[in-house]
Amino acid sequence: EGVGSLSIINAPSGYPDINGAGQLSCFFKEGDLFYTNLDSIAGCSPILGNRPPLLALKPQLLVDSGQQLIQLHSGVAFDAIAVYSLTGQIIAEQRISRTTDYVGTLNLAKGMYFLSVANTANGQKSILPFVW
Asked: Are residues 87 and 124 in the same domain?
């Protein structure tokens, strides 16, 4: 039995139906076209696997609470940052131009916080804990 075999589809209670289900038209293996049956369609084109892999959003955070300063660096662009308290309350948030570096000031009480760094274009987000 191989790709496109009708004997599997014709098993008990299986009836091939070109316009419904049952006939395999295209099969891609590791992104390459492996099998075609163009009886019911004009051609095959892959829709998965065409995207380049996403680079990991792994920002580095430097905190200087004495000068109320945070510095953020990432090898991948980001465009939104937010600071959360331990209870999940948003303390500060900011949309910024897409960048890989950010320097900002915060006026926070001493304590533990979380910094969320996001690339909204591709849905990546990273959350970093820090002590102020």
From this structure: yes
